[in-house]
Model the fold of this input.
Amino acid sequence: MRSGEKQITLLIIFLSVALIYIARLFYLQVIDTSYVYFAQNNVLQEQTIYPARGLIYDRNGELLVYNDAIYDLSVIPEQVKNLDTLAFCNVLNLSKEEFIATFARLRRQKGYSPWRPIVFQRQITIPTYAAFQEKLYDFQGFFVEVRTDRKYKHSNAAHVMGYIGEVSEKQIESSNGYYRMGDFVGQSGVERTYEKVLGGVKGTRYVLVDSKSRTQGRYKNGEFDTAALAGKNIHLTINLKLQQLGEALMKNKIGSIVAIEPSTGEVLSLVSSPTYDPNLLVGRERGNMYMQLLKDPYKPLFNRPISAPYPPGSIFKVIMSLMGQQEGVLTPATSYGCHGGYLFVGCHPHGSPLQLRGAIAVSCNAYFCQVYRSVVNNPKYKHVEDAYQKFYDHAYSFGMGHQLGIDLFGEGPGVLKKSTYFDKIYGRYRWQALTTISMGIGQGELGITPLQMANATAAIANKGYFITPHIVKKIDNKSNPNPSFNKKNWTSVDTGYFQVVIDGMQDVVEHGTAYIARIPNITVCGKTGTAQNPHGKDHSVFFAFAPKENPKIAIAVFVENAGFGATWAAPIASLMIEEYLTGKHETRKYLLDRMLNADLIKRNDSTSAKAK
Done:
């Protein structure tokens, strides 16, 4: 190529590049005006539009949680110019030291940016808001954001509904920029599990402000604004009246109540005691109140029904009855004698020998130790570990030893040990049924949450299956939104083996250890338990369902350090059943009064005064 042609080629290239740059600048400055936002950031104010959170109702449409407007004072630090600090502090009733400390704290927070809005003071009072608005022109860079806080119409079901709180740094990081400092999200209960449903979607509004922070109008007539989407309403499966009764019955007691509708898996009541008023965790004092509740020695924030594993005691004998039949080592006619116990396991006086139904009715320890021994030492298996694995599989199929999948945060798995656990302690092939015999009566290496107890009761009521327990019934009137909450989970025990066990549970209530739990004109099937406690008085346990035919409610009650199952747990369960099925307690008012007025714990620590 000649030198002249090369020069022409280079000239064309340079001219082409220049034209490209000129065209790009023309597009940015004349055609595309979005750059204006960045160029004029000092006069633009980005305001977050907070959506209203969804409302929460009980299963019958009773309003439980609603919203209340609150006012947060926010600031864009880069826009703060010529601030009259003294006047500002006087309006907000702050000292100069508090003002300086607040700004220093904000700068230390992760994700801080001087160009982004950040909450300076949360939930200012309406008088403070009015005074601030009058002097807004003096406080350039500051503005008020309106959002909603939660209000609770009733003081019940705190562990079900949960509470909202300020986002943590971890939550901000995982939100991909959606959350910022000062935002509130669900921290427990339904508020946490269904945050994306209840929380809605934030919107954004861009406004022009002058040097005095006075709004001059919407930027570009709202072209860049995004609308907020309100959260969806939720209907819980909880029956408010039943929940209120349960909390009243458990007042001054430590323990749990879980009631489930067997045919649907819907949780009718979930009581954790001691509990707290959810309104304590609302407003500017929520942090202080939370710390008081956290320090309470009786742990009112702890969700016992879904998290605490307890020895089930004698209620586990019902499960042993079923797995024994399934393994072919037990029939309704199987008879065992009782001479005050079995080896080192004692038993109370009763008639002997007994067949299966009678053994359930009187809760014979010796009988069910024999059943456990026959299951774990079953000769059809080569090794005891193989037979124990069948025991493990049966218990697991009833929902024990693993999370059930309830739509609440913090569910525990309970305790159900595999054979390898005992291999490590005793050595492989060096242990047998007698080594772990107490598991046959619900003691030893066995821990079941009250939720798992109620779920197992529902499986018995359904003669072999349960539906995953759940708390939410409808979202925006769409029923049962989670497909897994419609699925039948079958146990490993055939349906034909349940009838004799259910008959035995009926005997328990009609003329056995739970005679006190009888309800006029309602056939209740239940089982008492007295769970041994190495750290104090035994626990009172009872699970039941009713009516016998077409059951409507399955329930488990666990009262810590309360003694026999028939003394406290059984009466409380029967009153809950009666409330749900009839709504009346006319014939047993004496029992209701006794349960309501009983005080099984004494509170000496003043920090526990806020727990009910």
User: Anything to note?
Assistant: Residues 196 and 231 are 8 Å apart (CA to CA).
